[in-house]
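Risk register update: the risk of archive-format incompatibility is retired. Evidence:
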Amino acid sequence: MKKLVLSQMIVRNLLDRIAHIMQRILLHVFLMAFGFVMLMPFLWMVTTSLKPRELVRSAPHLIPTHFHWQNYVIALNAAPFGKYYLNTIIVVLGIVISQLLLSSLAGYAFARLRFPGKNIIFLILLSTMMMPYYITLIPSYLIIRTLGLVNTHLGLILPFLVSAFGIFLFRQYYIGFPKDLEDKALIDGCSRLQIWLYIYLPLSKPCLAALGTFAFLFAWNSFLWPLVITTDPDMWTIQLGLAMFSGKYGTEWTYLMAGTTISVIPAIALFMIFQKYYIKHLALSARLR
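Archived output:
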């Protein structure tokens, strides 16, 4: 009888293990298929950038038989992309650094300080996230024009110095910090600004990486605001530079995809570098909830 029970337990454990392995296999197959679908547009972009111009519309295959690397050289020489990249880097650095510092400082104020109307101000701030970006486009342009900042780097940066999303992100992140850290620092004579600078800011690397990634992608891929605020080609960003390949009578798809491939490399590199901090922030936020 004991042998029968033991054999049944062994069979049951074996079946459970087989079922678990099958579930993991099916999950990995699904994730691989989903990842391939997500990767297809990027793969099409890269392969199109390596095709001859005459085969872009007629070739039915995805992978070209001959790789034309000179498409990248032609695309980079078609316009002063070095200047476009420099303008984009200046704008991106200004937006990312200012959003990280100002959003973190405001998030600390909403999370730890007490002042009249704090909750009402925070609700009003959150309500701005529900407003479409296009509503603020014309008022922002009128303000920038009044300040005389059209066709300037500061004009491209100023409307995005801080974001309601960033303030909300840091506020929720700082609420989960133990209050003992702040109390001990106050006893030691630290000011609120010193507490934020020397305690909260160094401990918020995952949140900084997450918001920095979002701000970088937004600023790097921004097209509408640079199009509105710049009339001088010397102030164009990389996204406006890529638009020159789309003409009135057609689009140079090979050169456009070559320039686009080059433009997405910094975004991919940034995500790969800060991926662990981004995932750590998501995991920590889930535990705090």
